[in-house]
Amino acid sequence: MDYTPEIVQVIPHEDYTVSVYFVDGKIVRYDVKPKLGRGVFKALENIEVFMDRCTIMNDTLAWDIDGTNNPASCIDIDPDMLYSLEHVEELKAG
């Protein structure tokens, strides 16, 4: 049986990475920096857009670029690719 990753939380960070939390407890860190300035990712160069529009849409990490909650006009990242990233430990305040 194939596993379909289910994302339950995303937390953007000011270094253009996003912590992605899966229902099974796996946590990954997605780094957007290599994509900034290219194609649809150009909109994410604005740190306010990157931070404020980061959400879960289409059952995955996404950015609601136009603020309309329209899944057809968001930037979304393949959840299988996200799940394939290396597990990271949750950051703790300290």
Specify the number of helices.
2
The main β sheet shows up as: 3 strands, antiparallel
Residue stretches low in confidence (pLDDT < 50, at least 5 long) are none
Distance between the termini: 40 Å
Strand content: 25-35%
Which whole number gives the mean pLDDT? 92
Order of helices and strands: EEEHEEEH
Radius of gyration in whole Å, from Cα? Answer: 13 Å
Structurally, the number of domains stands at 1
- Roughly how much helix do the residues carry, as a percent range? 10-25%
Structural class: alpha+beta
What overall form do the CA principal axes indicate?
globular
- Count of strand segments: 6
As laid out across the biggest beta sheet, the strand order is 1-2-3
Q: What does this entry look like structurally?
A:
With 94 residues, the protein is an alpha+beta fold. The protein has one domain. Helices cover 13% and strands 30% of the residues. It has 2 helices and 6 strands; from the N terminus they run E-E-E-H-E-E-E-H. It has a 3-stranded antiparallel beta sheet. It is globular, with a radius of gyration of 13 Å. The protein starts with 6 loop residues before the first strand and ends in a 10-residue tail after the last helix. The model has no long low-confidence stretch (mean pLDDT 92).
